[in-house]
Design goal:
The protein is of the alpha/beta class. It has a single domain, classed as Acetylglutamate kinase-like (Carbamate kinase, 3-Layer(aba) Sandwich). It is about 40% helix and about 15% strand. It contains eight helices and seven strands, in the order E-H-H-E-H-H-E-H-E-E-H-H-E-H-E. A seven-stranded mixed sheet has the order 3-2-1-4-6-7-5. Helix 3 packs antiparallel against helix 4, helix 5 packs parallel to helix 7 and helix 6 runs antiparallel to helix 7. The longest helix is centred in the middle third of the chain and has 22 residues. It is globular. It starts with 5 loop residues before the first strand and ends with a strand. About 40% of the residues are buried.
Length: about 230
């Protein structure tokens, strides 16, 4: 990624909350400190997701007959909860509120600006692509609970091999023919939008968040470049 004043970071909900519902407060605080140390040269636009925990809840509600529109609204609200918690952990100066990619941003400059899901039916990956397009940023740093993108689920298959680079077209094909229930770090709708706008994804694991420094310097990093 070329050095740029604005950096879009999409933090997966699984980074905030484990599948059992435990909130990773200390990890989030460490991530914030890393960003603040780098904020001399960069302004970070952080988009928070919902994660696997809320997806589990939504699957239960779906079985109870809850309509898709209502499930989508619940999903958006959960991304807002994670965004609010992230904002609450920021030291001053910080923005007065969380934002969506469709809102006008604060005129005052802050080291970190926090965003949540915007509309029911759209993923926060999709929101991050729109935000990157709006900010004229060519790449998005995606932080998830796995160390990049693999040829198969690394949690299920110990012999899964990571990709250093992968084209969007190939990743979309992998998603299309994947096993039911397998999740990927980036949603298909976001990948298609990123392909349209020429935006890349840099996928890194939450335990290697410090790798963001390497990405900003266009150096080698532990993760996957999706282009």
């Amino acid at each position: 990624m070329r050095k740029h004043q604005n950096v879009v970071i999409r933090i997966g909900g699984s980074v905030f909350v484990s599948e059992t519902g435990r909130y990773n407060i200390n990890l989030v605080k460490q991530m914030i400190q890393t960003l603040l140390r780098l904020s001399v040269n960069y302004t970070f636009f952080v988009v928070t997701g919902g994660g696997k925990y809320i997806k589990r809840i939504m699957r239960v509600l779906n079985k109870e007959g809850v309509k898709k529109e209502e499930l989508d609204r619940i999903g958006v609200m959960y991304t807002r909860l994670n965004a609010l918690i992230f904002l609450s952990l920021l030291p001053p100066p910080k923005p007065p509120k969380i934002y969506t990619c469709f809102e006008n941003f604060p005129k005052k400059k802050y080291p970190i600006v926090v965003f949540c899901g915007s509309k029911p039916g759209h993923t926060t990956d999709w929101d991050a692509v729109l935000l990157a397009r709006k900010m004229r940023v060519s790449g998005i740093i995606k932080v998830t609970d796995v160390e990049g993108i693999f040829d198969k689920d690394p949690k299920k298959y110990p012999d899964a091999k990571p990709f250093k680079k992968i084209r969007i077209e190939r990743l979309l094909g992998m998603i299309k023919f994947s096993e039911p229930g397998v999740s990927f770090p980036i949603s298909p709708t976001a990948l298609k939008l990123a392909r349209k706008y020429g935006i890349k994804f840099y996928v890194i694991g939450r335990e290697n968040f410090a790798q963001i420094k390497n990405i900003l310097k266009s150096a080698s990093f532990n993760g996957t470049l999706v282009f």
